[in-house]
Write a sequence for this structure.
């Protein structure tokens, strides 16, 4: 537990089409762990092994827990496979329990914004859990297309906007940088 628990957790949303939403959330997680906070990160629709999952399990545990839910590849958001939808709901069930238990100072819901935007999760239920969370729990929700209702509820909204990206020049995602 943190030396000094937050008296008032806030809701932060990182959204937009630019790169860096998950990376920004992980930077905040690293800072929080450095101050003795307990951090829990639930990754929606991410089923491949990432560098952040490795470091959370081997170097930041037990202060940080990272649980990915997903299968390799992208989810068809307009018509998700039953397996993908089940994993999204399993991730939300865990996230809801973690948030309401109040044992973690910072809870990150990575890539939940798209699940909300495409109505793959009950938006009002998610918003209500955010409202009902223990007052000290800081929340970070990431992903493109954050719904307006979430942005209205949030205390901080950051939009990542692409200006230039080497992907446009044909550079593929690189191990250790993009994943």
């Amino acid at each position: 537990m943190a030396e000094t628990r937050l008296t008032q957790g806030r809701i932060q949303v990182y959204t937009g089409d630019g790169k860096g939403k998950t990376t920004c959330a992980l930077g905040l997680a690293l800072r929080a762990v450095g101050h003795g906070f307990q951090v829990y990160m639930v990754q929606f629709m991410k089923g491949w092994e990432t560098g952040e999952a490795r470091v959370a399990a081997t170097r930041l545990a037990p202060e940080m827990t990272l649980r990915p839910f997903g299968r390799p590849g992208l989810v068809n958001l307009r018509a998700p496979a039953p397996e993908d939808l089940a994993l999204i709901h399993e991730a939300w069930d865990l996230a809801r329990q973690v948030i309401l238990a109040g044992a973690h100072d910072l809870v990150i819901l990575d890539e939940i914004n798209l699940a909300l935007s495409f109505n793959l999760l009950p938006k009002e239920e998610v918003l209500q859990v955010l409202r009902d969370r223990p007052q000290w729990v800081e929340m970070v929700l990431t992903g493109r297309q954050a719904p307006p209702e979430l942005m209205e509820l949030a205390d901080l909204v950051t939009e990542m906007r692409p200006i230039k990206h080497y992907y446009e020049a044909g550079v593929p995602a690189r191990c250790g940088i993009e994943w």
In short: The helical segments are 21-34, 51-58, 82-101, 112-117, 123-132, 148-153. The radius of gyration is 16 Å. The chain has a mean pLDDT of 94. Residues 2 and 165 are 38 Å apart (CA to CA).
